Input
Amino acid sequence: MSNNISPVLHLSTREMHLKRKAMWDASMKNHGAYMDPETHLFSEAHLERRACPACGSGDHSFLFHKSGGSYVICKQCKMVYLNPVFKDDVLENYYRNNHTLQGETVAADIEFYAKLYRQGLSSIEQHIGSAGRILDVGCSTGNFLDIAKSADWQCHGLELNQTEAKLAKAKGHNIQENLLSRADFAEKFDAITLWDVFEHIKDGHAFLKEARKSLRPSGVIFVQSPSRDALAARILQAQCNMFDGLEHVNLYGMESLTQLCNRAGYTIVSYETVISEIGVINNHLEYEDPYLGFSKNAKSLFGMIDEAWIHERKIGYKFQACLQAR
Output
């Protein structure tokens, strides 16, 4: 299946990001409750410092501040992560009481997201053979589960946000409002999915260890997540929406994800990228707002770099990876 998924299929870059701006603005509003008014960074009372969550190294370099948070890069595996980061109890409380615009945003642009969902399901089925039992972690209002159910998967979800969990339950999905470590399932799963969720999990190593308990022997963990390797992230850096300062605590790339999987006892059995962000980059190169600029060119950079070139080099905006326990 082609991974050349782009906003130009149905919306201009500007139109798509105007629709998403409400979600970004709501998140930024929530940040204010945790901010130190003098430093304009998050208050130390909410924070803790840590080593690299991918490889465990304590050797890192400061990159930039963004929306109250501080991003660093690991000198060993090149992982980009928030340091300091919110304490576990503070972060969990934030998500339980966060806005509900994620599900609404996806539903409003379901054609775009459905293409991503189907591509992910196809990748999963290549490794396990056919539809089976699936668990979507951080399922929001169940938009992915809707697609999976229509493809004959037996669907379950985890969602901390009470309002979004209620909406997913109303669709008939089996939803628990809990973390994976506290959830209770009668049977194991053929696939566990994390759609734009893994970057929110502070300790990916602990999560992968815990997930193994809920996976059948030949099962897979599927991850879609913003990639620190992305061409857009490298060019825009602090201006890139990938870096939100609070929720996106870990930004993996191929190297750091490989190191994490090696530590946790997993193999990456497939890895590709989706979403080129060519339109966003062209806005930036034209000295316009990357997301709200008026560039109409979302097909190539300088007439030389197109989506195929970007995805061949695994530098699209997000990666989709399937992991199997060894």
